[in-house]
Amino acid sequence: MENNSALHIKTVITGVIATLTALWGWFGWLVIVWVCLMLADWLVGSAVASKEGRWSSAKLREGAWHKGGMIVIVCVALVADWLISAMMANLPGVTLPFDYTVLIGPLVIVWYIIGELGSLAEHAVNMGAKVPAWLPKILAAGKSAVDAAGDKIAGDDPKDDNS
Questions:
Q1: Nearest by Cα to 114 from 62, 32, 37
Q2: Mean pLDDT across the chain, nearest whole number?
Q3: Are 34 and 112 in contact (CB under 8 A)?
Q4: DSSP designation for 52
């Protein structure tokens, strides 16, 4: 009887995941991962601050405002994607050499996901965990690759960047 219950639970979970994937696709899962990582970063950062005796409601609010700002930027990127897609479909003479669905939104969200992963790794170190020396390097390389892709799309030459 227990095996049937476990099988039933697995079947339901698989069905829910398949339904959600059909509903919102890979991009929806990307958004879910980002939102979960933002929440985890906020909660773990609060726990670390509490452990170190630095927790304050002002810092918690500051973190919430920071996360809120990230949400605004993602919304801007998604509206830009929608606008470009609408222009491609409705303005004669405006074309791209490929079909456009979304591009800016996923790039921004992946950039934020990598940042959240780095922040969580920093929190883990503050909690006493060791981190492989290569992990921050890989995260930085991933963020740089997303930056380079965004710069290329925008027509910016990173070599011209004075920062």
A1: 37
A2: 89
A3: yes
A4: T
pLDDT per residue as tens digits for the range 7-26: 889 999 898 888 888 887 88
Task: Report pTM.
Answer: 0.81
Query: Two tokens at 155?
Result: 């027509």
Residue identified by tokens 């950062």 is 45
Q: In whole angstroms, what is the distance from residue 50 CA to residue 14 CA?
A: 38
Question: pLDDT tens-digit profile of 119-155?
Answer: 999 999 999 999 999 999 999 999 999 999 999 888 8
Measured CA angle at 39 (ends 35, 42), to 5 deg: 140
How is residue 19 annotated by DSSP?
Answer: H
DSSP string, 62-118: HHHHHHHHHHHHHHHHHHHHHHHHHHHHHSTT---SS--S-SHHHHHHHHHHHHHHH
As a dihedral over the C-alpha atoms of residue 74, residue 79, residue 85, residue 87, rounded to 10 degrees, the angle is: -140
pLDDT: which is higher, 3 or 112: 112
Q: Residue 128 carries which DSSP code?
A: T
